[in-house]
Amino acid sequence: MSYNEPEAKIFSSTNSSYLAQKIADAYGIPMGKVTFSEYSDGEFQPSFEESIRGIRVFLVCSTFPSSDNLMELLLMIDAAKRASARHITAVIPYFGWARQDRKDKPRVPIGAKLVAKLLEAAGATRIMTMDLHADQIQGFFEKPVDHLFASTIFLPYVRSLNLENLTIASPDMGGSKRAYAYSKFLESDVVICYKQRKAANHIEYMELIGEVKGRNVILVDDMIDTGGTLAKAADLMIEKGALSVRAICTHAILSGGAYKKIEDSKLTELIVTDSIPLKQESSKIRVVSCAPLFADVMKMVQENKSISGKFVM
């Protein structure tokens, strides 16, 4: 370690250790040692078991529920700050509470901004995340944000399928920009699903805008929660004459009866990243690891190199 090039260390929260280890292996350094002691009432305290004075630390933690994951990250950031780390980068493959990015009705919080302020108040000097639910969440931070795109790892996989008559689809109007970006690189057609909801996670009506007859369709979304939208969209497209329907979803939340809906649907395959650990196995779910992408960008950040080449979209 030279004075001008301090080493970096990677640490992980409890529930993201499976991914952090893969990132550390791809980066080429061992995982840093951090322990969590717990009181009988459930309160916990992280402790770095090695010196981090004057270096850059990467703290890997996807902030999916429960809120303990977010709290672990905040406490780790505070501990790193008080241990005199030079730079503290919060690596958040899945940024939880991102769906609360605006007031969509009276008397509700803007949870994404609250989380951003908490991370900064704790002492994070940089944020690294992937496929935010809404791009504007970057504006909630006063610190640098590296917003990576999972398309960097999804596009090579899609090309490897060698599908003819390919059509990219968005499961809703809000995802049309993402779908058009994929279609640009794959030189394919685009269709959009128009849906109306009665309440969160409950679709009242869905209609297809565009032609899918005789096409191999790939639905693109940033996350899959209950699986209702994608299952309904896939079934609708098969009814309209699609040859096959696959789905690409960065973050596999898969709550409630999502696994059963996916298995029972007309989806040929669901491709996701490992930003969130799968709760169970499924013959229709394929996981493409995001660890090499994060490791490459983390190394570039550490070496003060440009990361623009990693932005496919």
What keyword list fits this structure?
alpha/beta; 313 residues; globular; 7-stranded mixed sheet; 5-stranded parallel sheet
Task: Explain what you see.
The protein has 313 residues and is of the alpha/beta class. 29% of the residues lie in helices and 27% in strands. It is built from eight helices and 14 strands. The protein has helices at residues 17-27, 68-82, 111-122, 151-161, 176-186, 228-239, 258-264, 291-302; strands at residues 8-12, 34-38, 44-48, 56-60, 87-92, 126-130, 145-148, 166-170, 189-199, 202-209, 216-224, 244-252, 269-273, 285-288. It has a seven-stranded mixed sheet, sandwiched between helices. Strands 1-4-5-6-7 form a five-stranded parallel sheet, with helices on both faces. Strand 2 (34-38) and strand 3 form a beta hairpin. Helix 1 (17-27) packs across helix 8 (291-302). 41% of the residues are buried.
Biggest sheet, strands in spatial order?
10-9-8-11-12-13-14
State mean pLDDT (0 to 100 scale): 93
DSSP summary, beta strand count? 14
Spans of at least 5 consecutive residues with low confidence: none
Q: Which class best fits the helix and strand makeup?
A: alpha/beta
How much helicity do the residues have?
A: 25-40%
The largest sheet is: 7 strands, mixed
Number of helices: 8
EC number: 2.7.6.1
Catalytic activity: D-ribose 5-phosphate + ATP = 5-phospho-alpha-D-ribose 1-diphosphate + AMP + H(+)
GO biological process, one term: 5-phosphoribose 1-diphosphate biosynthetic process
Domain Ribose-phosphate pyrophosphokinase N-terminal: 9-123
